[in-house]
Design a protein that fits this description.
This protein has 8 helices and 11 strands. The protein is of the alpha/beta class and about 250 residues long. The protein has one domain: Rossmann fold (3-Layer(aba) Sandwich). The strands form 2 sheets. It has a 7-stranded mixed beta sheet, sandwiched between helices. It has a 4-stranded antiparallel beta sheet with strand order 1-2-3-9, with no helix packed on it. The longest helix is centred in the first third of the chain and has 19 residues. The chain is globular and about 45 Å long. The N and C termini lie far apart (about 45 Å). The structure holds zinc ion.
Length: about 250
Amino acid sequence: MNKPNNSSENTMVACPVCDHPETHYFVSKNDYTFNRCTECDFIFLNPMPNQDELNAQYTDDNKEIEPTYNKSGSRLRRAFIKLPRFLPYALGKNTLDFGCGGGFVAHALSFVAKSSTGIDISENAVAYAKQRFKRANYACMDFVQLLETTEKYDFVYSSEVIEHVSEVNLYMKTLAHLVKKDGYAYITTPDLGHPKVPQNITEWSMLCPPIHVQHFTKKTVDILFKRYGFKVVKFYKHKKPGLIFLSKRL
Ligand SMILES: [Zn+2]
């Protein structure tokens, strides 16, 4: 092995978003290292933990879920406040909350949709949703299991999920599998390109590996979603560093 001094293993990792072969060390936090793509500026953990390691955060002795449930009143209120925005795409349609957590949005959607389904990787979350919100249907499934299903949806809501997944291309493949042609996917994720992101990126609370394993901008979601047959039709304005966008399956 005769590598130049400025080379390291991580320079050899291709960009999962644009497939560019060159990505370089960007920043470290919590003993994890992010690479950045020289072509599209996507940042992602390298090495990337596998999904089993990441899932361990969302299963069994879940430390993430508890605070969520403590704020269940405000989560439920916010789910209903968001509802009018979804009406043009969800009214009388088959809807899915992909990564539904405690089922708050699936429950809200159940009042306007023809059918409302929530799917999550966390058994605890699904058990909570099933017990509390009986109007919607829930299932605990992973991407591979979902790819084996034949159910398609007119409207898929997936909030604060994409930044957590080990294989972003598997997530996208699953999303494309779940959304009907001419259907919509409504996605939210932290916005790396927002003016309010601190100049010293390590001070940004959303940069919190290994909970968030990658970070997007408007540019990188455009590239990624296009590759899976979606067109981003709208970015919603947001005062906080969060991307909220609607994409159509062409
Ligand atoms: Zn790239």
